[in-house]
Amino acid sequence: MVQPDLQTVRLSNGKQITVHTQLFINNEFVPGHGPLIETINPATEEVICSVHSADKQDVDAAVAAAAKCFKDTWRKVAPADKARLINKLADLMERDKDELATLDALDNGKAFTVARDVDITDSIACYRYFAGWADKIHGKTIDTTFDKFCYTRHEALGVVGAVIPWNYPTMMAAWKFAPALAAGNCIVMKTSEVTPLPAYKFAVLVKEAGFPAGVVNIITGYGHTTGNFLACHPDVSKMAFTGSTGTGRKIMESSSTSNLKKLQLELGGKSAQIVCADAELDKAAEWACGGIFNNHGQSCNAGSRILVHESVHDKFLELFIKHTKAMIKIGDPFDEDTFHGPQINKSQFDKILKYIEIGKQEGAVVAHGGKRWGNKGYYIEPTVFIKCHNKMRIMQEEIFGPVVAIATFKTIEEAIDMANDSIYGLAGAVYTTNLDTAVTVTNEIKTGTMWVNCFDVFDQSTPFGGYKQSGFGKELGKYSLQEYTQVKVVKIMRSNL
Amino acid sequence: MTVKFAHEAITSKGDKLTFNTGLFINNEFVEGASTIDVINPTTGEKICAVQAAEEAQVNAAVDAAEKAYREVWSKTSARERARLMNKLADLVDQNVDEIAKIETLDNGKGIAFSKGYDIPEVAKTLRYFAGFADKLHGKVIETEGKLSYTRHEPIGICGAIIPWNFPLMMAGWKLGPALCTGNVVVLKTSELTPLSALKLAELIKEAGFPPGVVNIITGYGHIAGDKLARHPKVGKVAFTGSTNVGRMIMKASAESNLKKITLELGGKSPNIIFDDADIDQAVAWAHKGVFFNHGQCCCAGTRIYVQESIYDKFLARFKEFTSQTKVGDPFDEAVFQGPQVSQTQFDRIMGYIKAGKDEGATCYMGGNRLGDKGYFIEPTVFTDVKGDMKIMQEEIFGPVVSVAKFKDEEDVIAKAHDTVYGLAAAVFTQNITRAVSVANKLEAGTVWVNCYNELDYNTPFGGYKQSGIGRENGEYALENYYQVKAVKINVGL
Hints:
- The complex is a heterodimer.
- Helices cover 37% and strands 22% of the residues of chain A.
- By secondary structure, chain A is an alpha/beta fold.
- In chain A, a hairpin with a 5-residue loop joins strand 7 and strand 8.
- In chain A, helix 4 (112-131) packs parallel to helix 5.
- Chain A is globular and about 70 Å long.
- The termini of chain A are far apart.
- The model of chain A has no long low-confidence stretch (mean pLDDT 96).
- In chain B, 36% of the residues lie in helices and 23% in strands.
- Chain B has a seven-stranded mixed sheet, sandwiched between helices.
- By secondary structure, chain B is an alpha/beta fold.
- In chain B, helix 3 runs antiparallel to helix 6 (195-207).
């Protein structure tokens, strides 16, 4: 008996909603041939429902649908018409904002108000931003010798694969879909099997907006099976992956053994927030607090190391804990006051608690938090370690939870060295009122994003992506279009001069 | 409740059209210093009177724009600008029927074109530029001991003076880049065709643009246009019209505040047909090239050069094709060519036809008025022309074309360049080398290969030589609406 597509699920606030659970291929929901996977409500530890997963034949079907659509239909659609469709999709997301936010909150555990006002809002803005690029992807003409006429075309890749994580289900999808579609590609996206539900509501809107069948295909399944089939598929021209550095390596390996598909990797981070002696301490503490505790610490760019000038350490710590207590309201995701929800699942929950133990064993001191919160749901208190040094595991390894490690520095050069002493290079921040310090530090830190006197501030128009083992390739902004196009040069020889 | 200056007109098909005849300043329709009668070129009869701006009203519009820029628009996010522009585009699409009829009533262009091309292009142009609002990038430039970067900042108050040949489309071409780059606008329409922009004004208010961001005034060029071109607070003026008036605008800038100017002026564009061209295609495109919009196109292909060996064949087929041009009431969906826009234009064109005959050219077909009501002129073809004739040098702006022979590429390029203009050109050939080679050699802002009058909102359009300064449409248009500031921060000197 094949599980029907529509399932009714209960929210923690008693409401009932209907969700899709089958694979979205060619604008239809179809059963998968992989195992049914249970998706858990992290706030209650209960099963929400089971979803279909994709095995090799489903991945093949999705890729075939995308390939056929690209060849027969999508590449012939005028760019301005692609823009209209993407804008229409954004309009529909705006209309159904609450429903989308509900699914993000249910499946991921983030607060409903955060899902609505940040995740979904930014996703909609992302689609609108990239819709504007669709008819502005220009090649160049390049003068070489007098007898030739040369120009470049920035062409779509064809079928792109995307594997996205569970930490921002709708927004991570938007960061891939929006530029991919604007650049003229068809897509097969594998969502995380941990948060499969939100994307299927999005799929319904894709069809309603009028996208031709096969442009957008959404499947789910385990990374080592479904994700791997996609990464190895010979007809997929490019893989865009966001997730752990470990899995990023596997994707790269799969590309190397299959068709050398182009890659884009957004991996882990251990971003340093540098608080200088001349920083506006209270504001810095507030930004730094959000910088680590936003999304329950489940951000690749989380500012999980704070480097404070020794002269202001105690004052800063006092302010930081003050802001933590004020900002981090823990509770049910559907509670209006909640800011901090549960961690995504048991495996992450266990891992984070283990790192807290490691920190204690390494000699760091818990200044705040350090324990589970409540006895139902994967809740962990916002946790602050002090008296850390940069070689500790809690200063080098990505914890992906609400745990921050604070260390001190004497000189700005020392801070720069400590910040750069990491295999990662995703983001970072410096808090200072001094112009020279701001420019020097931002020039010297080896990361893809440097915030000055703020943290976690995102815009659709500025690029995001890592240095070093945080990955390669950019998301957002004009830069991201390069990831989704390929350059052909045409060189016409003139025989008549 | 009657709205002040609201007006109702009826088309020849009995459709009711509503619009406001006031000056649109600060999101309100207000009184002018005087009125101007608006004539229906299909009948020669008065449609209505509109309020006309003189110095005081131009000043009021500029003041409204300045206040809006300082207090609101300069603080409005790019995303919000884009949202408003997209909303306006949606409203234009929703009202395409009525706006198109107003355009056809006022300008005389076929309803098939106003509804199928002019008005939809306004929406497309607005959408295209809306997409650019949050994509205006400066650069960071490596310099010694400094962090140097550029900002592309709005100019502030932009004036726009537009013509009567594509009334609303010309408004779209100005508003698009001006608004997306963060400027506020005072737009002076042609006193011959003020109505469609006044309809757009209602939609601008409905879309939610803050008052003063877009102001639309009707007025005479030598009064309101001149005042706008000389206004010390206006940072830039964009003008589309005749080369003669273009000179006046440049002079006005020189004599006032050296405001930046862009000029889209006249043309006498050559259409070159080689002997290996697909003749039927060449005929069809050449027809569109000159007779589209009743010849009232700055880029019209008004000099057709045909290679000797196919000249007779081309001419015969061109005559046959042209003789099927449907001229008549523009509200008839099947009509290709309506009346010329005014009595003045009509007289001017007829004057050129006479000059052509007087100078010894052969009037191969056409040459007469059509009917006795409205400003209709037959599609007219001259042959046996010489390069120095008035009809070969001066812009006629009507359904009149000259056809001449040429020997080879060298010969025709010399002939093509024998003009003060350089707006557009076309070459018809199947040979790839010749196509690219000739296209690259022609001194024109747009060169069409095997087509004509293909205008897109995302490719740049503008003139070489005396056809103008600056480009409209496409990313290139943005350069005309922002100014570049370099910021250089000392970090180690």
